[in-house]
Amino acid sequence: MWGDFLKALGIIAIVWLSICALVLLILHIKSHKLLKSIFLNAILGIAAIIVINLTQKFTGVFVPVNWWTVGGSCIFGLPCVCGIVILQILI
User: Fold this and answer.
1) How far is Cα 6 from Cα 12, in angstroms, rounded to an integer?
2) pTM higher than 0.85, yes or no?
3) For residues 80 and 58, what is the distance between their CA atoms, to the nearest angstrom?
4) How far is CA 34 from CA 5, 25, 31, 38, 42, in A?
5) Where are the alpha helices (DSSP H) in 31-77?
6) 17 contact partners, CB below 8 Å, separation of at least 6
7) What own/partner pairs with CB < 8 Å and gap ≥ 24 does 48-56 have?
8) Using 50, 70 and 90 to split pLDDT, how confident is the model at 1?
9) What is the pLDDT of residues 34-72, one digit of tens each?
10) Helix axis angle, 34-54 to 2-30, nearest 10°
11) In this structure, are residues 45 and 80 in contact, taking their beta carbons and an 8 Å threshold?
């Protein structure tokens, strides 16, 4: 029962992240400042992880720093970090 649920949840997450990546790419292209926009998005994502981990003592929320979280926050920026924080709070 839980195996099927987790498999469906994984597929939904992959589809959702693919749609978000496509929307972000379109928005970056439409900004006419592609590299600046992508770089700023990555910096904001990394900065958000750093701020969350620095305030861990007060908030009780910790985002593990590994290739997945850093890569996701570089590609998807703040929405990815918000999603990771929500998952940390729920789990």
Assistant:
1) 10
2) no
3) 22
4) 38, 9, 7, 6, 12
5) 34-54, 56-59, 67-76
6) 76
7) 48/73, 48/78, 48/81, 49/73, 49/81, 52/81, 52/85
8) low
9) 888 888 888 999 999 999 999 999 988 888 899 988 988
10) 130
11) yes
